[in-house]
Write a structure and sequence with these properties.
- By secondary structure, this protein is mostly helical.
- The protein has one domain (about 10-245).
- Helices cover about 75% and strands about 0% of the residues.
- The protein has nine helices and no strands.
- Helix 7 crosses helix 8 (about 185-210).
- The radius of gyration is 19 Å and the shape is globular.
- The N and C termini lie far apart (about 40 Å).
- The relative contact order is 0.19.
């Protein structure tokens, strides 16, 4: 496990026996993919709105909605992760997608004002990475083993630790040297983080594959939500990397 939302105990607690599978529809890969696309559509809709606000000169309103999106997204993540898993997942995960869209649309517009065209590049890069990792997983170019899962988990945990430390240092007007700058070290760090996010996709695909047919179909919403968490992270890391590269021109 690497993505903290895809915890094995969550799916195991909803494991269905053979009798239950005959009565209740079970989670499928296709169903999870369709729900991921649906959440992506909701995210895109709300992202377009805050993008429009920034472009139309209503930056103050966009910032308010971005802040609300961050807070709302954090709350819905906690509810989805630690609340009961039932049919209401369709509601909480949809709210999460809308909240994330409010933030991503605004922050993307701001980046795009500084570096025109960067958002299109980040979106294309994210989609190609998702497609590439899905093909890699499907044809088993890279097999998801226990060693790979542990490695990705440790790397993800390390990145999270660095970001938390940087956030704490900001209160003291300090920063971790180099890695958040556009220096070669900073660019190298962003490349590594993008790679870690991409490998999280492999682990996510495998996790969803393992529990397809074993859990009730409402868990498709949880699988889609967990996958969206990784996709949002991947997009933001690619956007940061492109910003660092463009700032060197």
């Amino acid at each position: 496990m690497a993505n903290p939302t895809l915890r094995e105990e969550v799916f195991n607690s909803h494991d269905m026996n053979s009798d239950a599978l005959g009565v209740e529809k079970s989670m499928t890969q296709t169903g999870t993919l369709l729900k991921t696309l649906f959440l992506g559509g909701l995210l895109s809709m709300s992202a377009f709105y805050t993008w429009y606000l920034v472009g139309a000169g209503f930056a103050d309103k966009a910032i308010m909605l971005m802040t609300a999106g961050i807070i709302g997204g954090f709350i819905t993540v906690l509810i989805a992760c630690f609340g009961p898993k039932n049919k209401y997942l369709s509601i909480t995960t949809s709210i999460y997608a809308l909240c994330e869209g409010l933030f991503l649309g605004g922050i993307s517009a701001i980046f795009n004002n500084y570096y025109p065209g960067i958002v299109t590049q980040a979106i294309v890069g994210t989609m190609l990475t998702i497609l590439g990792m899905y093909i890699t997983y499907s044809v088993k170019i890279i097999r998801v083993t226990d060693t790979l899962r542990k490695t990705v988990f440790i790397a993800t945990f390390a990145v999270a630790g660095i970001y938390i430390l940087q956030w704490i240092l900001m209160f003291f007007h300090a920063s971790i040297p180099q890695i958040f700058s556009n220096s070669p070290i900073g660019i190298g760090f962003s490349v590594v983080v993008c790679a870690i996010a991409a490998f999280n996709l492999l682990v996510d695909f495998d996790f969803i594959d393992q529990f397809s047919g074993r859990t009730p179909n409402y868990m498709e919403w949880y699988g889609a939500f967990s996958l969206m968490v990784t996709i949002v992270w991947l997009y933001m890391e690619i956007l940061r990397l492109l910003a660092k590269l463009n700032s060197r021109r």
